[in-house]
Amino acid sequence: MVRGNFFYNRLGEKIISIRQKRKLSQEQLALLSDLDRTYLARIEEGKANPSVKVLNKLSRVLKTRLSILLKGV
């Protein structure tokens, strides 16, 4: 496994965790953040490299700061 993948895996796990705490389905989060659901699934699986713009959209919908989303990742 490539070292960078560890970062994306942890980021994906964090997004899933926050999404579940907010009681949102993957479909709902994708719709509210104007992302394709399959792209969101790839982010959550650690298989995509989301831009800061995408992460900002997700953090707004999840009602969390971007810094919190990235903390400990």
Automatic annotation (TrEMBL):
<dbReference type="InterPro" id="IPR001387">
    <property type="entry name" value="Cro/C1-type_HTH"/>
</dbReference>
<dbReference type="GO" id="GO:0005829">
    <property type="term" value="C:cytosol"/>
</dbReference>
<dbReference type="InterPro" id="IPR050807">
    <property type="entry name" value="TransReg_Diox_bact_type"/>
</dbReference>
<keyword id="KW-0238">DNA-binding</keyword>
<dbReference type="InterPro" id="IPR010982">
    <property type="entry name" value="Lambda_DNA-bd_dom_sf"/>
</dbReference>
<feature type="domain" description="HTH cro/C1-type">
    <location>
        <begin position="15"/>
        <end position="69"/>
    </location>
</feature>
<dbReference type="Pfam" id="PF01381">
    <property type="entry name" value="HTH_3"/>
</dbReference>
<dbReference type="GO" id="GO:0003677">
    <property type="term" value="F:DNA binding"/>
</dbReference>
<dbReference type="GO" id="GO:0003700">
    <property type="term" value="F:DNA-binding transcription factor activity"/>
</dbReference>
<protein>
    <recommendedName>
        <fullName>HTH cro/C1-type domain-containing protein</fullName>
    </recommendedName>
</protein>
